[in-house]
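In response to the reviewer comment on reproducibility (Comment 2.3), we provide here a single inverse folding case reported in full, input and output, so that an independent group could reproduce the run without further information from us. The structure tokens appear first.
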């Protein structure tokens, strides 16, 4: 069974129109699936919208809680509630389109984790982000490399990743970062454990109206990268297969 996790925060306007096509896609191409939508303390009509759309789909369920805890917490909640293998998480705005799902699942053969990447030569960026976000990304990458390494990855933050099921649940059970640096922590833990990670170019488009505020978490970024590097006590050993 394929488990699909979609974290959401105030996504009623965007996820509502897209969710029907998401369900249709997985019913058609991966009928043995579970879809877990995690509402991260939304203040809009996300819960009501999702509940209405998935009402007649037993393979889809909603997990909702308050207050808002962050994307990392939402993805962790969904992964730990999952039962399938593999486990895929993707963004609610479908910045990476559904057409990329078969490609990333195919690449999982023989590795433990496949991460979507906007930074590789063969990546196709349909709508580029504003210049200030690109500049901030460059600065972030340099700080990340200094504090936690991961230099071999061109893009750690793309919200499109797939894991072998047991690996996903073990990694997220050990993770601590609740907000946007959770991707870095997961890859840091996976690298320390000697897991096989493949970076795959994807098609991607910057979604207008995103709830992600790039500059909002600058202080948290420094704090969380520091935590990942200096307070992570996990042993460097291969996780159980």
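Designed residues, in position order:
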């Amino acid at each position: 069974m394929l488990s699909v996790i979609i974290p959401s925060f105030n996504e009623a306007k965007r996820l509502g129109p897209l969710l029907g096509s998401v369900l249709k896609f997985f019913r058609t191409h991966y009928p043995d699936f579970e879809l877990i939508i995690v509402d991260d303390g939304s203040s809009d009509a996300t819960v009501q919208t999702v509940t209405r759309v998935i009402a007649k789909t037993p393979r889809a369920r909603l997990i909702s809680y308050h207050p808002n805890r962050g994307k990392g917490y939402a993805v962790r909640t969904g992964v730990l509630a999952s039962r399938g293998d593999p486990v895929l998480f993707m963004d609610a705005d479908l910045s990476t389109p559904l057409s990329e799902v078969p490609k990333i699942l195919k690449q999982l053969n023989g590795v433990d984790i496949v991460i979507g990447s906007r930074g590789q030569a063969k990546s196709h960026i349909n709508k580029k982000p504003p210049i200030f976000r690109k500049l901030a990304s460059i600065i972030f990458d340099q700080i990340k490399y200094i504090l936690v390494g991961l230099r071999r990855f061109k893009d750690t933050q793309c919200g499109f990743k797939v894991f072998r099921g047991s690996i996903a649940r073990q990694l997220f059970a050990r993770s601590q970062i609740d907000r946007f640096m959770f991707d870095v922590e997961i890859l840091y833990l996976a690298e320390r454990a000697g897991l096989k990670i493949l970076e795959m170019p994807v098609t991607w488009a910057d979604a207008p109206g995103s709830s992600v505020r790039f500059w909002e978490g600058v202080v948290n970024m420094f704090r969380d990268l520091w935590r990942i590097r200096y307070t992570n006590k996990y042993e460097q050993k291969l996780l159980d297969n």
